[in-house]
Amino acid sequence: MPKPDSLQGSLDLLVLKILSRRPGLHGYAIMTAIKDWSGDVLRAEEGSLYPALHRMEEAGWIRAHWITKDNGRRARMYELTPAGRKQLDAEESRWAALTSAVNRVLRTV
Question: How many Cα atoms occupy the beta-carbon half-sphere of 94 within 13 Å?
Fold first, then answer.
């Protein structure tokens, strides 16, 4: 069983996919979606997620804006850009090729 925080190499894919399905999420909601949608197997820690969000924003894959919630707290909301949708397609193709190759090795060995 992989360590729950072992998302190296797949975090971008997961974040982009989540934002393609549910635009306008803040960081904590993205962390929760990863945990919930993976059946409690995967976890994105703050120390990994927020630098990844910043990097993806700089790359133009996502955009962010601040809102003030009803309780007065501010939250940074993220959404996919057209470049992010293109990157998501590339990430999904890469992931499919990777998992296919791993499965071939597992069946061969």
Answer: 11
The enclosing H or E element of 85 equals helix 82-108
Distance CA 81, CA 16 (A): 10
pLDDT per residue rounded down to tens, the chain (109 residues): 445 444 567 999 999 999 999 999 999 999 999 999 999 999 999 999 999 999 999 999 999 999 998 898 999 999 999 999 999 999 999 999 988 999 999 998 6
Distance CA 1, CA 90 (A): 27
Pick the closest to residue 86 from 65, 56, 42 (CA basis).
Answer: 56
